[in-house]
Each structure stands twice: as structure tokens, then as C-alpha cells.
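WARN retry 2 of 3 for item q-0093 after timeout on previous attempt; input resubmitted unchanged.
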Amino acid sequence: MVSKFIGELNIVEINRELHKRGIDTGGSKADRLLITEEFISAKERTNPRSLQFEVTDDESSAQILEGKHRRLKVRRMSESVERLERELAEEKLKSTERMKQASCSCRGNSPQPSTSDISGTNHI
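OK item q-0093 returned
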């Protein structure tokens, strides 16, 4: 266990203090810190700047997990973007092929055989 002053608390630790006192944990870190200080001053009649809060190693673990979760989310999003870019490139190629075939048939040239019609459905 480690002791910290209120200004040294991170967001996870501030949320724990708010939750412990039955206070909503919404808003920015600055808002949450201010609400915690005001509550301690008004309800507990103590100077919040003089208090030391006990912090467990579990909270550090929670921050690590939160960081890992964020990195996993970014990786999944990157994979999705890459997949969509591949699909878009494939669609562009198909569209270009259909445009060439349409252009040939308009000029009276016989179009090259295709495996798909203008709607993109395969007819093999």
C-alpha cells in the first residue's frame, strides 16, 4: 500500500474515492478532483489537501489493463481499416473492368468475356 496526497491521485484512484463516498464519477479529472475536495471539506470537515489516501497496487494494475484495452481497440480498428481499404481496392478494379467493357460495347467492339455483369454478380 502506498499513501498519496489528493493532488497525486490518478483518475482511477479519484474514481475509487468518489465511489466510496457514493458520488457520481462523471466529468473530467479536474471536475472529479474538485468534487472530491469539496465533499471532503463540507461533509467530512477535513482539509482534503492534508489527507493521505491509501492506494493499492490493484489500481496500478487497473491502469495497465486500461492501457492494454485501449491498444487492443486501436489494433482492431487498424485491422478494420486495412480490410476496408482492400475491399475498396477490389471494388475499384471491378468497376474499372466494367467501365472498359461498357466502353468497348459502345464503340461496336465486341466486349471481352466477363465473369460478372454490371451489377457485380457472378455468372459462372
